[in-house]
Amino acid sequence: MKLLLGSTLLAVVMAGCAGGGTIDRQEVVTRHNIVNTHIDSLESLTVGNGAFAFTVDVTGLQTFPDRYAKGVALGTQAEWGWNRFTDTVGYRFEETLKTYDFNGDGHEATYSVQWKEPGRNQDAANWFRKNPHRLQLGNVGFDIYLKDGSLAGPEAITAIRQELNLWTGEINSRFAVEGTPVEVVTVGHQEVDLIAVRIASPLIAEGRLKVRLRYPYPTAEFLDEGTYYAHPDRHKTAIEQQDGSGAVIAHVLEGITYRTLLSWTAGEVAAADTPHYYRVTPATDTDVFELSVQFSPETGDASGIASFAATTASSEAGWKDFWSRGAAIDFAGSTDPRAHELERRVVLSQYLTKVQCAGAYPPQETGLTFNSWFGKPHLEMHWWHAVHFALWGRPDLMEKSLGWYAEIADKARALAKRQGYEGVRWPKMVDHEGQESPSSVAAFLIWQQPHFIYLAELAYRHEQDPAVIEKYKDLVFATAEFMADFPTYDAENDRYNLGKGLIPAQEVFPAVETFNPTYELAYWDWALRVAQQWRERAGLPREEKWDEVIDKLAPLPQQDGVYLATESAPDSYTNERWRKDHPIVLGALGMVPESAKLDKAVMASTLKKVWDTWFWEHTWGWDFPMTAMNAARLGLPDKALDALFMDIQTNTYLKNGHNYQDSRLRIYLPGNGGLLTTVAMMAAGWDGSEGKLPGFPADGSWTVKAEGFNPMP
Fold this sequence. Notes:
- By secondary structure, this protein is an alpha+beta fold.
- It contains 18 helices and 28 strands.
- The strands form nine sheets. The protein has a nine-stranded antiparallel sheet. A four-stranded antiparallel sheet has the order 9-14-19-18.
- Helix 11 (451-463) packs antiparallel against helix 12, helix 12 (466-485) packs across helix 13 (518-537) and helix 13 packs antiparallel against helix 14 (544-552).
- The longest helix has 20 residues, at 466-485.
- The chain starts with 8 loop residues before the first helix and ends in a 6-residue tail after the last strand.
- Residues 1-18 form the signal peptide.
- Keywords: Signal.
């Protein structure tokens, strides 16, 4: 690796040597293999490849979706799987727009919002929020028959032992039904949207075990857990092909047609009496049955899909490659009792983000398990989903979704133009094609805007490859053009203000009143400076307008020795309304590198104020890593660890590694990504940090081996 920009290679080398010896990566990973011994709806397990995920219950398939629906649901999702209901009314996106002049200076801008007043505009906004929506592609589970002929329910599953081998991506599930054993091995292909299973049980020869394939209908609601079977007349399924070794089933909805390709060792498939319900019946001359199931938006021949053996080989090779390259960290030998739990969270978060967040599009916050916000990504969360890949030495996984911005740049440019600005304005809540969704919050957020510059900078820093500059420079510059044009010039104070007309990352503040939020000011300043560096790296002169905005951007607002959430809220720490949601003021040093405009003593006082006065029960999973990053940069490693382990519900990490929020959001991948980002910067440091492992206490309570990390900016 070449010398890293703005950092010291020493930090990486020393971190890699800390504790001595080379990390036994397989040992670190497999000591956190997950073992389930009973049915718990929050303990489901997932296989996948970053663009496709398949989540199973204790049977190794999706046998009891209703039992798991309000836990970590048994989802089957692919990044291509989107549907749109037929618009019988003729809604136009323009009907979602409202025009505002926030600063009273004649600059009118239109925003796509949710209308409070009932009527056509509200209906149009609701339509475009719900459409398109991500699909649950299908449920693949067992139909197991008891001796009396009835279907086995969850209570009939006994002697459970299920293990996810994290090193190979293989789930081995053993259980019994009325004393008869069943063993299922489940694997996910790492290159195509396919799972394969090997089933061994005397129940096969008895004709009492079949595999069920059932197609739910999309709810088009905030959540879709794959258990909605209303409106069977609104979609169609049919067996298009079948022979003795496989079949193709077509599923036709209003906005998409896709296929399920099935290949088996010996058996047949037939439609059940229930619509959109099919059963694969294994031949009864053996106790072993192998089945591959591939979901595809294209037509295909089932005879060509990967077998169980080929899928197993793909899974083993893909996961070995993942774990063997990039960074690793080992906390064995630490005396701090939290060390093992931190290592568990780190290992499982790597697995989950590789499965759920490593595709060609920014992921939704619940990944490829179940829908939240109709299945739509939030671009302000892309930082939390993607930064860790680069810091852990796997920037290619980050760049998979970074390339998507070029695909939607025309829409982002049109959005900026519609609002009277130069450059591109990246939307916040989008579908896979980059179409913004009406929202009375998302429309006014701006902190997603610098993310593209941050992610592109990480891609360049990895090896300082000039090809990276050439690849991303046009979008870096277009991003900065909007950032330089968006601030409002304040002639009275000879400065540029951010706002009014924005909602900061702490979403409790109204757009009509808010200006100069601390975090956004710091991030704006940093990103514009980096964009200027990109111009210089590309052999271009600096942009005078950008420098003017950098020089005259409003100072970070403070009062009584602490930074305010926003200049428009001098009561940031006395008004209960402003001490909820994300304590994003801390992100001005942590997520954002130290700025010449920032006073670290003031930020240290701000951390204490926030720590002591915040309503932490009203926060989100990534707020704890964000707080830890702030503490680490302030030279408070003990405080950083305390933040990572704050005893708050939204900082819960389930047995399967998912960051639990509440009964609505049972999984929340920005928390996992934020944890990985924080641990990386605690291990490898950041621009200007000193010494090895700067984010961990040096009192001997932590024994840390770390290798392969890239320092944070």
